[in-house]
Task: inverse folding
């Protein structure tokens, strides 16, 4: 069965709540998906999933260093993530506070790994964003992204 992995870093719970909503939707979409804090995640874990979704709070318009460290450590698996499905999400405090640049930064790294990224013409285009604690709009975007990742992954891997 195709597997998914949602990885997040979160200090005050906002990004974690997004991760949980995305994970639930991926599981409902038929992808056996685990949700892990980045502190519990190793580069080896990236190999075990066909879809990897990474979320970070926005720190100065960029991903948190904890997420970047995992990505930098994933150089040990370089070439082995080629063709997997990737996605990203972020929480910030301000509108225009850089959540999309954070997502783009994560997606850039996943592209270097050779991963497949799907945009969204109707929902949050780059990936779900939330201002602070995810409200119903943000949770809807998280569920939508989870469904879309699951659908694409099952199309590619089953
Ligand atoms: C070091 C630091 C830098 C931050 N930089 C930004 C920023 O550039 N733009 C913004 O809108 N929010 C910024 N924030 C706010 C967080 O992105 C926001 O509170 C986020 O929802 C926290 O997510 P969490 O609850 O998952 O930890 C920053 C917070 C910290 C601690």
Result:
């Amino acid at each position: 069965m195709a597997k998914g992995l949602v990885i997040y870093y979160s200090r005050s719970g906002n990004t974690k709540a997004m991760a949980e909503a995305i994970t639930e939707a991926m599981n409902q979409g038929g992808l056996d998906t685990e949700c892990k804090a980045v502190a519990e995640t190793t580069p080896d874990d990236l190999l075990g999933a066909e879809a990897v979704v990474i979320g970070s709070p926005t720190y100065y318009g960029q991903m948190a260093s904890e997420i970047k460290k995992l990505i930098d450590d994933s150089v040990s698996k370089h070439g082995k993530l080629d063709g997997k499905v990737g996605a990203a999400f972020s929480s910030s405090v301000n509108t225009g506070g850089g959540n999309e640049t954070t997502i783009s930064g994560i997606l850039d790294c996943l592209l270097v790994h050779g991963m497949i990224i799907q945009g969204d013409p109707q929902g949050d285009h780059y990936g779900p964003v939330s201002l602070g604690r995810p409200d119903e709009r943000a949770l809807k975007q998280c569920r939508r992204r989870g469904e879309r990742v699951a659908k694409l992954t099952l199309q590619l891997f089953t």
Q: What stands out?
A: The first helix runs from residue 14 to 28. The chain has a mean pLDDT of 98.
